[in-house]
Design goal:
heterodimer, A: 170 residues, mainly alpha, Four Helix Bundle (Hemerythrin (Met), subunit A), globular, B: 109 residues, Helix Hairpins, 3 helices, 71% helix
Amino acid sequence: MIPLLILSPLILLAAIGAVWMARPVHAALMLALTLALVAVLYLALGAEFIGLVQFAVYVGAVAVLIVFSLLITRPGDEAEEIERRPRSLVTGLLCTLPVMAVLAYTAASGSNIKLIPWQPKLSIAELGEVLFTSHAPAVLALAVLLTAVLIGAALFAREPDKTQDDSSEK
Amino acid sequence: MTPLAMMLTLSSVLFALGLLAVLTRRNAILVLVGIELMLNAANLNFIAFWAFDSPGAHNAAEPVLSGPMFVMFSIAIAAAEAAVGLAIILMVFRHTRSTDLNKLDSLHG
């Protein structure tokens, strides 16, 4: 309960930073901070392995990938973004606040059922056993998906071949 | 407020912030940032229900791992989604020299 009380405001502040920062690189770094804090929350709740996976995959790969793409694309100056902001914020809040109100109301009212916090332990041995016995088909499907993604991303990132372009334009 | 309710409220606010980023940002990469926030909010729900579930509801002999399992697959798929999304954005950038979504209003490559 105490880690939750400490981490929740920090996570929300970092997420607000990710949404609000005008400079894209700052927003991406705030996203990395949000993801790292969520990983710490997982660690505090007893899901150590998930916390470490979150650190490795989200903070280590996805956030760094986003920062690198921002460096490659060099987005324009943020003066235009700041000037446009009040209008887009009003529209965005009009669409977002009802969604948040419904979700938060359901979350706060629907979970009054007395649940006992039972401090579950996530044993990596058990997780590995379940992963490669009952969940093996899902792991295989995921492997196929990741291979397809790898090939697809490499294909997209490849510099277009001029000679091939001519032949494909028939 | 129970810990479960707190976690669910946290995750709903996080989801709303992600939605706000998707709706208001004009840079395609920052829209992806919003999508990552929303995915994280969903993952938080799985861990919340796993961590604060009642032990009596399950067979005590069997480990209860559905929540973390789902989160693990979700993280893997989110990484794949980010990789493909960024590759597409970079390809669009190569064509139009811009990632501003307001300027990308034509399907002609």
